[in-house]
Amino acid sequence: MPDRSGTATEDVAEVVDGLWVEYKGSHSAQARERLILHYSPIVKFVAGRVAAGLPQSVEQSDLVSYGVFGLIDAIDKFEPERGFKFETYAISRIKGAIIDELRSFDWVPRSVRAKARAIERAYSKLENELHRTPEESEVATELGMEPEELAAVLSQVSFVGLVALEELVAGQDREAGNTIGDTISVKDPAHDPVQAFEIEEMKHVLADAINRMPDRERLVLTLYYYEGLTLSEIGEVLGVTESRVCQIHTKAILQMRARLSEPDRNTAS
Length: 269
What we know:
- The chain is mainly alpha-helical.
- It folds into two domains: 1-107, RNA polymerase sigma factor, region 2, helix turn helix motif (Rna Polymerase Sigma Factor, Chain: A), CATH 1.10.1740; 108-269, Butyryl-CoA Dehydrogenase, subunit A, domain 3.
- The protein has 13 helices and no strands.
- It has helices spanning 4-26, 29-51, 60-77, 86-105, 110-130, 136-143, 147-170, 174-177, 180-186, 193-211, 215-226, 231-238, 242-268.
- The chain is elongated, with a radius of gyration of 21 Å.
């Protein structure tokens, strides 16, 4: 019996390729709309991932609406002749559009951002003094808090975590440099030695920062960003609550930010 599913998949791929040729060749509005409809499931997927790190008051349907603009932008700017996969390129654009829109609403209070910076500075100071990763109790003492109070603050700061990591990876604002994903998708490092060097250097810096973390923080980052597990699923793996995983994730992000900012301070001094 013939494999009709394989044939159907090939037929869809041919239709999509034809739509790209039509849209890029004549800027057909109809071809553009069909491309948007075809790739729209990616928006829902990205919105779901972003929503996992946000307060429940943020509606996922709103995130989908923001992400559609990122999808449209990706379709308009994508260059099929470069040979890159559109889905990879679109995901970073959609995620960026959602985050940019959330930033414009300033949904994280200034007081929470201030707490995040204070915890980051405390981690950096203690690591320099102790030459190891400080315990939560030591960070709490440095901040003049009780451990329970620090845990509560980390839960608040967790709402900043997603955007903070995006900034950490990007290293600059979205208009100027986009995310690492954007950079890798749009340009071929093989044809740009400087870019290739910068990407490899950043990978080494990030890998070093992650490897210097305690096992639990390193495992959470690996499962969340590399294995694609949700915070709830990571909680099942570690045998802790989702709220605790959220705190560990936030603490790990703040530690990374503190470590990656150390060279800048040393240079400045």
